[in-house]
Amino acid sequence: MARMPGADYRPVVNVHKNGVLEHRGLVLHVQDGTGSPYGWFNQTSSQASSDFWVGTGGTIEQYCDTGVDYAFAQAAGNPYYASVETEGRPDTALTAEQLEGVAHIYAWGHSAFGWPLAVVDSTTEHGFTYHGVGGEAWGNHPDCPGDLRKAQRPAVIARAKEIVGTTSGGGSVSLAHVVAAARKDPGAAQGHTTHRSEVLVVERALQAEGLLAAQWVDGSFGTKTVTAYAALQRRYGFSGADADGIPGRTSLTRLGAAHGFTVTA
Ligand SMILES: [Zn+2]
């Protein structure tokens, strides 16, 4: 059961059991109201629910088995993204306590499901997106969660990075070193390492993305890591020779932005 520590678990009837197809990230919503929506979410006539709700005072409620069952918050987006309702109105910002609560939810999802620590304005990319971007397919709520809350997503992600501890631990990675490792390590003896510490930073990020199993996070850019990196490149929209598993500047910089490391030459 995927229950978030620190959240008040209050399961509701409006969920689709075992409906989750993919762990792309989290969708930010605004309640456009006040008070816990538990009662509304727990009556079948409403056909409404979310994974989480964060009150203005920072209280977190969780309404379903996140990552397994999906809630009814964003129509066609439900099988792919979890959802967080935030108390208040579209023309008001998240309180500091709410921002902290959403950041803790995101940090938990990053660890539990590999949600990248990145803001996206998308219905397909992995990261922290928002309801209105989904248009008709996501239920036609263009004003959810409102411009003020949308603009707070980078601050939520920055705080989530602090919570998961990648801001200080990431450091910098040399593109030339990582490319050299990706060319040399697969053909060398098992476990051969070329630039171990930098490769480890990249491998931890690939693991957090859900693309590399923990046993291959070993500092050697071997065939498993090349395969994982190729999957990342495809996720970022590359194909053919641009998705061969050898890091390029664009993909590595984007991976670093999501996982707290910088890229040098
Ligand atoms: Zn919404």
TrEMBL record:
GO MF annotation, one: N-acetylmuramoyl-L-alanine amidase activity
Any Gene Ontology biological process: peptidoglycan catabolic process
Top-rank taxon, per record: Bacteria
Protein name, UniProt field: Peptidoglycan-binding domain-containing protein
Organism of origin: Peterkaempfera bronchialis
